[in-house]
Design a protein that fits this description.
Blueprint: H1 3-15, E1 20-23, E2 31-34, H2 37-58, H3 63-78
Antiparallel strand pairs: 1-2
């Protein structure tokens, strides 16, 4: 994401009360963004659910297909 898109997203999350934003006193252009403990638990639950869905979708794949997926994902990450 570019800087302006990131700033807009953080503003939306802050307005919704999902994150806390603290300005860096040494560099007013920089901010620290953090979740509250309750929000962190919610994100953890969402990631666990999403991981479970992903696992379920791949549960019936053959090993060679999983290896090919891993190879292609590595290629994507490298590019």
């Amino acid at each position: 994401m570019d800087r302006s898109a990131t700033s807009r997203l953080i503003d939306l999350l802050r307005t919704a009360g999902l994150v806390h934003v603290d300005m860096d006193p040494s560099d007013r252009r920089a901010n620290s963004v953090r979740l509250s403990p309750a929000d962190r638990r919610q994100v953890t639950r969402a990631l666990q659910w999403k991981g479970g869905v992903f696992h379920d979708r791949l549960a019936t794949w053959k090993e060679r297909d999983l290896e090919e997926l891993a190879r292609l994902l590595a290629k994507l990450n490298e590019s």
